[in-house]
Design brief:
This protein is an alpha/beta fold. The protein contains nine helices and 14 strands. Strands 1-2-4-3-5-14-6-13 form an eight-stranded mixed β-sheet, sandwiched between helices. Strands 9-10-8-11 form a four-stranded antiparallel β-sheet, with helices on one face. A two-stranded antiparallel sheet has the order 7-12. Helix 3 packs across helix 9 and helix 7 packs across helix 9. The longest helix has 21 residues. It is elongated and about 80 Å long. The structure holds nickel (II) ion (NI).
């Protein structure tokens, strides 16, 4: 193997990666609209030696393979590439030029880090003991892109033995790495409910089956699922995030009310139990109010769970990248991410990497994901790239 110095970004490569990140940040694109982003990725990969872009029937996203000098494990590295419908409050040198769209989750950071890792892996490909698949995934924000790539045949020709993903964490000190087993993200159901009632004039409520009263009763009843159906030591949420009716007339009750909600949990059994209760309550409470309800599942995503075996590899990669002193333990959350679909296909590991303050004396604000003033501390950018590189090397040992 080459000198370890060769397996990290050279200083000139670090500045190139930062420039790429800033270019991506200036031109954020929404889920499944990442055309310019995909073009940029293709053109950067096109300048590297030994990188083969797979010919897949996809509109956005890029999947490529670097062939190593010796045979061995195929390791997948995945970065998400999409942005959010948020108007940016500028905080740094690069500001969104796409009004109302913003990289408010740092997927520009992930994309640039993976391009950086690709650069180093391509430069050292003769020394690689196996191949590497680079997965630039569209539409993570609507948790649809992972399945989109799988359904497009991303794994038909090359099927990874394992895959690594990463998300920046602005609430964690820059450069700290979470490399441990357990649940990282929740699995979820997104669901829509339509309650059909019967309208009448407000002065004659006896002629109505008011779906608004029914919807309010349902929302209140759903709150009992967590407190009375879920074991206190399990993690789950049940939410209604939107209620709408179509009333354009004053003093008139409506026919229909639409609700949107989600159920999230770490354990799939807990998620299914909570969702089963949502279905039962919707049907029975609607009936109790003389209404009819239709519940449809819009989307489902499995949880992101790191096995002990993959966590051991990830920890060795993290030690090689930042040293034992910068590895921290952080409990999982009930956010959601469609990396869970990739984990259904192959073993994998999902890192959290600190992208916040440099140390305790740093007073810079790093607002959370999806905040209009969100930004990453790009001192962590080369660390992100180097961590992905080390993950490949450790997994191929
Ligand atoms: Ni994100």
């Amino acid at each position: 193997m080459n000198n370890t110095y060769d397996w990290v970004l050279y200083p000139n490569e670090e500045s190139a990666v930062l420039k790429i990140k800033e270019a991506l940040h200036r031109h954020p694109e929404l889920s499944f609209e990442e055309h310019r982003t995909s073009e940029l990725i293709r053109s950067v990969l096109g300048r590297m030696d030994g990188v083969k872009i797979l010919d897949l029937p996809i509109d956005t996203g890029v999947v490529a393979v670097i062939r190593g000098g010796a045979s061995g494990k195929l390791v997948g590295l995945r970065a998400d590439i999409d942005a959010l419908p948020i108007r940016e409050v500028p905080t740094g040198p690069a500001v969104s030029q796409n009004d109302g769209v913003m990289h408010a989750c740092g997927h520009d950071f992930h994309t640039a880090a993976l391009l950086g890792a690709a650069q180093v892996l391509s430069r050292n490909r003769a020394e690689l003991r196996g191949n590497v698949m680079l997965i630039f995934q569209p539409a993570e924000e609507i948790t649809a892109g992972a399945r989109y790539l799988l359904e497009a045949g991303m794994y038909n020709e090359y099927r990874p033995d394992c895959v690594f993903g990463m998300h920046n964490r602005p609430d964690i000190q820059a450069g700290k790495v979470v490399a441990e087993a357990g649940y990282r993200m929740a699995g979820k159901y997104n669901y829509n409910i339509c309650i059909h009632g019967k309208s009448s004039h407000s002065g004659s409520p006896q002629d109505s089956h008011d779906p608004i009263v029914c919807a309010c009763a349902l929302v209140t009843a759903l709150q009992s699922i967590i407190s009375r159906n879920i074991r206190p030591l399990d993690s789950a949420t049940v939410g209604i995030e939107s209620i709408q009716s179509n009333n354009e007339m004053k003093h008139q009750m409506v026919d229909d009310v639409w609700l949107e909600g989600s159920v999230r949990a770490h354990d799939d059994k807990v998620r299914d139990l909570a969702f089963g209760r949502v279905c039962e309550m919707t049907e029975q409470i609607a009936a109790a109010y003389g209404c009819e309800a239709e519940l449809t599942v819009e989307d489902t995503v499995p949880a992101t769970y790191n096995t002990q075996e993959m966590a051991d590899i990830a920890k060795r990669a993290a030690i090689a990248t930042v040293g034992e002193q910068d590895i921290i333990s952080v409990p999982g959350g009930l956010g959601c991410e469609d990396f869970g679909w990739l984990l259904k296909e192959t073993p994998g590991y999902y890192y959290w990497l600190g992208s916040g303050r440099v140390d305790d004396t740093d007073e810079t604000e790093y607002p959370g994901w999806h905040d209009p003033a969100f930004h990453t501390n790009d001192a962590a950018l080369p660390i992100a790239a180097n961590l992905l590189i080390q993950s490949v090397l450790e997994a191929q040992k």
